[in-house]
């Protein structure tokens, strides 16, 4: 009986010692992730000849040259969504015509994306609402 308790006791002591080691290691070296740089993004809605336009104002460097290529820090494009549907990229400060909007409230969403289309790198988005009669 004593022989069968000894391995169990040793395992319990080893587990307790290891758990204490892990707690000490965590307390001694806290891990903090650097905050991603915050970028500004604004959707500017306009109307030209009866058609709606959108322009993206941002301090992220918009790049048509590297669009679709490898990620370059502080550079990318804007993903344009209308009513939840991806319409396409915005790669410059020039306004783009929106597709025909439906009657009622339309949601125009802009999301900063890296050159390789990853939206989670910059984590910046904005929305504008366009009401159509």
Automatic annotation (TrEMBL):
Annotated signal sequence range: 1-19
Keywords: Signal
UniProt superkingdom: Bacteria
Protein name: DUF4399 domain-containing protein
Organism: Chitiniphilus eburneus
